[in-house]
Amino acid sequence: MASLLSDKINQVLAKLNQLPEKVKIIEVGPRDGLQNEVEISLSDKISLVNILSHTGLTLIESGSFVSPKWVPQMANSGELFNRIKRTTGVTYSALTPNLIGLNAAIAANVDEVAIFGSASESFSRNNINCSIADSLRQFEPVIKQARTAGLAVRGYVSCTLGCPYEGYISINKVAKVAQQLHDMGCYQISLGDTVGVGTPEAAKAMINAVSQHVPIDNLAVHFHDTYGQALANIYAALQLGISVIDSAVAGLGGCPYAQGASGNVATEDVVYMLNGLGIESGVDLSELIAAGNFICQRLKRPNGSKVALAYPAAQARFQSLI
């Protein structure tokens, strides 16, 4: 009874604060996370995706069909998609920047694909070796062919709150790129703070600018935690009606083209915050922590989630009080 009452109170508080009642988490650890970590075995990557499939997550970005010359960690994505144990209700997506990548993804039976644009000219040239305008032209046939094949296409916009080469990026530029991707057929646009420099008010201003051109229901946020602002920025986004959040288990990742940028916000930390706000995500925190601990052990690195580090000790203390 007390638990039901607590849930009701949390739901009322969420409505009063204009927060969404439910949030969808896009797990990007196996792709955006591992692409900037040390290389690990294919079997470990497959195990990570399989473990994440049983946490309650409904979309896992599992690989990337890009040139192994530039991102060697993703070289075996085709084999990964052929060997993972797919769970009903889970979408397994991949990044496909060009037609070669798209055809490889289709052959691997990928459920959904994503393309990756930038709001920064310098970042675009350093990341995908072409201008923003050229990148968008290259994406047109990818989107068209993907949709013909029955695949939904998600669009990323990087450097929405700052660029490692240019610094400040105009929110009008962000809005323009987001609108173009949406008009081209991307069902959702993920707004990425690639270098993690954003703060809540800056995030709000950027999202408000973009939402004048792309409906808020078609927007997601993707915050890196370089300056420890990711959760605060997510909370600010929730207040504006954003209900889709990208995150990586154990805070994996960074950006190979943004020196000094730390990993994505940890999925465990996002779920813990959502639970505290009374917002449903459908993700089991304990199972998620187990997945993060598994991959960190394989990578031989500390877990980047504060919740994952604190949770076992906290649970033990609570048990001792019962």
- Helix-strand sequence: HEHHEHEHEHHEHEHEHEHHH
CATH overall fold name: TIM Barrel
Inertia-based shape: globular
The quaternary organization reads as single chain
Kindly name the structural category.
alpha/beta
By CATH, the architecture is named Alpha-Beta Barrel
CATH class: Alpha Beta
Measured as a percent range, the helix fraction is 40-55%
**CA-atom Rg in angstroms:** 19 Å
Biggest beta sheet attributes: 8 strands, parallel, barrel
Count of domain modules: 1
**Average pLDDT, all residues:** 90
Query: Count of DSSP E strands?
Result: 8
Strand arrangement, major sheet: 1-2-3-4-5-6-7-8
CATH superfamily: Aldolase class I
Strand content: 5-15%
SS element count, helices: 13
First-residue to last-residue Cα separation: 18 Å
GO biological process, one term: ketone body biosynthetic process
Organism: Moritella yayanosii
Pfam family, one: HMGL-like
Enzyme class: lyase
Summarize this structure briefly:
The protein is α/β, with parallel strands linked by helices and 322 residues long. Helix content is 47%, strand content 14%.
What would your notes on this structure say?
The chain is of the alpha/beta class and 322 residues long. It has one domain (2-321): TIM Barrel (Alpha-Beta Barrel). The protein is built from 13 helices and eight strands. The protein has helices at 2-16, 29-33, 42-52, 77-83, 99-107, 121-128, 132-148, 171-184, 200-211, 230-239, 267-277, 285-299, 306-321, and strands at residues 24-27, 59-64, 91-95, 112-118, 152-158, 188-193, 219-223, 244-247. α9 links the parallel β6 and β7. The protein starts with a helix and ends with a helix.
